[in-house]
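Q: What structure does this chain adopt?
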Amino acid sequence: KLSDFKLTDVVIEITKECNFRCVHCGSGCTDIPGEEITTEEWIPVICELSEIGVEKIVFSGGEPTIKRRVEILFSRIVGLGMEYGLISNGSKMSDMMIDALVKNKPFAVGFSVDGMEKTHNRIRRNQKSWQNCMESIGRVKEAKLPICIVTTINTWNCGELDELAQLADSLKAECWQLQLTFPGGRAKQQENFL
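A:
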């Protein structure tokens, strides 16, 4: 029954702003996010989530690393005794972001890896996406932070799952999260993609 349900994990789409136009984006994110809740306005929400017993928060987007001042939420979450993580496309992992992650260690930094290089770049519509993502993964690993590989499955990449599993293993990822492409946003416009 519903009264037995305990909410422990929450995923927050912290922004619709993104520097990519990925084919599979279910949110239709852009570089002009429109009106959004500010980072400061998220603080009371984070506090309320803590009060009702939430234990883990994952930030996604859009691209959460470009949300203005998102790092203040990391310290607030840790200060409340919760855990947090984030899922990034790996293109904007600045020194400042890595420093904030080191200071407030997440349970994992997720990186969207949606196929091997050619497929990943095609899905991301960016010929340097794979290279930038691998460099960001390397930098986060150097900082001794745990990583997770996140793959959104579709017809373009489903034949590469064995190779992706080997990649996740070679990167010493803590986990490999597989999810189906949601038929929303730009993904619903792709014929024979789901």
